[in-house]
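Hi support team,

I've been running sequence recovery on a batch of backbones for a student project. Most finish fine, but this one hangs at about 90% for roughly twenty minutes before it completes. I'm not sure whether the input is malformed or the queue is just slow. I've pasted the structure tokens below so you can try to reproduce it. Let me know if you need the job ID as well.

Thanks,
M.K.
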């Protein structure tokens, strides 16, 4: 039987349940969500599938060992009980990140914690070989994560290496882009997988750099987000199974190729030409430019995309009005969006990510369901609305 590993996936707050469902679908076992993360178990294949297919997680780490860490000496000793030659060579580079919750340890500075772990690994190599591996903070061969909960440290390998929300298609970010994994959460909460499977259109009338449209196309086209990335922390790990990885990448490439033949209409518009230029560039780098239609248009003039007259799904990330002088403008845009939807989108479903209840009220539409999501540090509301015939 293949070896089972314990994994932990990190995710923005309020997206934990969505991630737990996604991981379960990818074959994970003993899936348990906690604050901003999900524990799961599975074979290496399950971990690899999660890395390649997750639309929601930021990082996925594979647990090596738990060690006591009430003092730096204890942590140093504990790190030394792992045979690091099983995970990297002396000529490979490493990076250590350090996180903590409920600290009950004298190690209160994350830099100090990371340094202690790094020293313990490097000293082990020096004792064994007389040489020491060096540090690479941007693209290390092995990325070690040390997480302290109370006075216990969990040492893991960060298989992602760089946050998985960075899919590599974003060449230009526009003004206030939504994070790629938060966009995926919006689309899942909006019910996009159901709409797309029925061939219904997706429309974002304030698309900016196009993140919701691109994530929507990837989802509808069965396209794994990981296919777009060229770096994963796992690829230089000594126990990496390159044959298994290549097999899963080939399978994902085949599914992406097949998925492109059945994409529904995906359209975006925006008042800002700069945002649309960014959207065009990003769609191109995701290989999706021929499937995403873009138009320069203010929200008060939007029309449902041309095509069969089925009602579809409108999703958007409305301007928040973060600065005081933007507030009135953001409120006006919400009012205009609400008017356009009431007048020209009866029968459609709308899912609107907005900065506050007050801004949401400006839409003049009542939400059937409201979710909280974080876009970076900003707490936002996602309003799911049925647009009724008048
Ligand atoms: C929060 S940003 C959307 C960011 C986008 N989701 C992304 O990932 O890049 C809000 C967008 O609304 C657009 N916008 C503001 N007022 C508008 C209006 N009256 N009509 C159409 N678009 C408008 C802005 O140009 C901006 O691109």
């Amino acid at each position: 039987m293949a070896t089972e590993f314990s994994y932990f996936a990190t995710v923005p707050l309020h997206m934990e349940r969505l991630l737990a469902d996604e991981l379960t679908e990818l074959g994970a076992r003993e899936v348990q969500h906690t604050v901003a993360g999900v524990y799961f178990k599975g074979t290496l294949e399950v971990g690899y599938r999660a890395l390649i297919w997750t639309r929601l997680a930021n990082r996925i780490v594979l647990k090596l060992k738990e060690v006591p860490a009430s003092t730096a000496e204890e942590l140093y000793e504990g790190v030394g009980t792992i045979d690091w030659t099983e995970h990297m060579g002396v000529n490979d580079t490493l990076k250590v990140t350090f996180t903590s919750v409920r600290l009950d340890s004298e190690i209160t500075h994350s830099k100090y914690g990371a340094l202690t772990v790094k020293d313990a690994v490097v000293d082990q190599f020096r004792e064994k070989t007389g040489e020491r591996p060096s540090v690479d903070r941007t693209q290390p061969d092995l990325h070690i994560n040390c997480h302290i909960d109370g006075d216990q440290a969990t040492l893991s390998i960060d298989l992602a290496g760089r946050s998985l929300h960075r899919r590599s298609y974003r060449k230009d970010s526009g003004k206030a882009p939504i994070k790629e994994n938060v966009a995926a959460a919006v689309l899942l909460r909006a019910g996009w997988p159901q709409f797309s499977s029925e061939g219904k259109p997706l429309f974002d009338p304030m698309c900016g750099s196009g993140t919701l449209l691109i994530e929507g196309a990837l989802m509808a086209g069965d396209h794994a987000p990981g296919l777009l990335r060229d770096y994963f922390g796992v690829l230089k790990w000594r126990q990496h199974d390159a044959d298994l990885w290549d097999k899963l990448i080939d399978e994902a490439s085949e599914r992406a190729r097949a998925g492109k033949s059945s994409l529904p209409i995906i359209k975006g518009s925006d008042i800002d030409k700069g945002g649309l230029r960014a959207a065009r560039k990003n769609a191109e780098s995701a290989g999706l430019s021929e499937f995403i239609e873009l138009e320069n248009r203010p929200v008060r003039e939007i029309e449902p995309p041309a095509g069969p007259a089925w009602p579809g799904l409108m999703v958007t990330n409305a301007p928040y009005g973060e600065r005081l002088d933007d507030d009135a403008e953001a409120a006006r845009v919400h009012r205009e969006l609400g008017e356009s939807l009431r007048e020209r989108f009866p029968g459609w479903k709308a899912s609107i990510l907005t900065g506050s209840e007050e801004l949401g009220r400006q839409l003049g539409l009542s939400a059937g369901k409201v979710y909280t999501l974080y876009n970076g540090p900003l707490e936002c509301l996602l309003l799911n609305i049925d647009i009724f015939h008048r």
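--
Follow-up from support: It reproduced on our side and the slowdown came from queue contention, not your input. The domain at 180-221+263-386 is CATH 3.40.50.150 (Rossmann fold). No action needed from you.
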